[in-house]
Design brief:
Length: about 375
């Protein structure tokens, strides 16, 4: 089979899948789509791609350098996004953070994204006229993403274009560009690092979708400009690869920043929370940073314990007033330490995030001020 026929075969299979997705698969087999149908389709297509192009040699000595550049920009973007949580607050993620849940999500989302980039990489680099194929593959992969999101969202057409279509096309255009420049590792990082981060962390910034989209588009633009600039100055890249000064210092700073950000977003057993009200005074004052440990077993909780829980998508700190059992389910009444702050609602095991341990006075003051200005108290 000729190269052109191989390319057409794979693209036709993807197009058929795109047509079947909203018309047959999602309406009748949506229950099996995420965990069975989609992973199997892309796995089989990746196997077919490998069979077609296993003899194709694609070399780029700058692949690792471009990947390193992409990783640093991605890390900076992740840090910026989660630091913004101190401005807009945090909300629990919708993903399952149990070990089994994490494994399932990585299999269903991250692995599938890597398979897609592997296929994209060989399709673009399998022909001589890569420019035409670049635009065609970008369009097809964008259509696939939109075929799923268009059905799952309830936005108006204009909002769908702004919130879904533009970011989807942008990331696919970037990944196609990275494949065009023979930087497979970079496209892996763009797709896998961010997705894996959001699958692993228990909380995410609670900002508006429009703000995240702006940050996301700036992130894609930064990678494109960095790779394009490096590609135009390959002699400088050669010198940087040879010299590579201050490697130890660079990785030390990178490690420290990663640990700090991981603590802030709650990756570890202990996590911080800025106090943005006075309900717990005098024990917890406005601007204090409360440190809490995560709780999975509420049997360790007792009345008078101070807990962190979710209420209206916000993390709240209050003291346990009482615990009652109804039909085998435990309901908890909470209150603040100030008079007349008894909650008018009950919480359950599913709402509880952690158990308060200690505070760092004034450490959360900047975040608390911003919460108050934004009306998120």
């Amino acid at each position: 089979m000729k190269k052109g026929q191989k390319l057409v075969t794979i693209l036709v299979l993807i197009m058929i899948y795109i047509v079947l997705l909203p018309t047959c698969i999602l309406p009748f087999f949506s229950r099996y789509y995420t965990y069975i149908i989609n992973p199997i389709f892309w796995t089989l297509l990746a196997i077919l791609t490998y069979h077609f192009y296993k003899k194709v040699k694609i070399k780029n000595k700058y692949n690792r350098y471009f990947a390193k550049l992409t990783f640093y920009i991605s890390l900076a973007f992740i840090i910026l996004v989660f630091l913004s949580g101190f401005v807009f607050g945090f909300t629990p993620t919708s993903y399952d953070n149990s070990l089994v849940g994490i494994i399932k999500n990585i299999y269903c989302f991250v692995v599938v994204l890597l398979l897609q980039e592997y296929i994209r990489y060989y399709l673009i680099n399998s022909v001589r006229r890569k420019t035409k194929v670049y635009f065609l593959i970008t369009l097809i992969f964008t259509l696939f993403d939109l075929a799923l999101t268009f059905r799952l969202t309830t936005y108006s057409i204009l909002n769908h274009i702004l919130i879904t279509t533009i970011p989807t096309f942008s990331v696919n255009a970037l990944c196609s560009y990275l494949a065009y420049k023979k930087s497979l590792y970079s496209s892996f990082i763009v797709k896998a690092v961010l997705t894996t981060t959001f699958l692993l962390v228990p909380v995410i910034p609670n900002f508006k979708t429009s703000i995240f989209i702006i940050l996301e588009l700036l992130y894609y633009l930064a990678i494109y400009l960095s790779i394009a600039r490096a590609n135009k100055n390959l002699s400088d890249v050669d010198n940087k690869i040879k010299i590579n000064k201050n490697k130890g210092l660079k990785y030390t700073v990178l490690t420290i920043v990663t640990i700090i950000v991981s603590f802030i977003i709650g990756v570890f057993y202990f996590a911080p929370l800025a106090i943005s009200n006075d309900l717990m005074e005098p024990n917890l004052s406005f601007g204090d940073m409360a440190i809490y440990k995560k709780v999975n077993d509420i049997s360790i909780l007792r009345p008078d314990d101070v807990i962190v829980y979710v209420k209206d998508k916000k993390l709240t700190v209050k003291r346990i007033e009482s615990m009652t059992s109804r039909n085998g389910k435990i309901y908890i009444q909470t209150k603040g330490d100030k008079p007349n702050t008894l909650s008018d609602y009950l919480i359950t095991k599913e709402d509880i995030i952690g158990l308060y341990q200690f505070k760092i006075p004034y450490a959360g003051y900047p975040s608390a001020i911003i919460y108050k200005l934004l009306g998120r108290v």
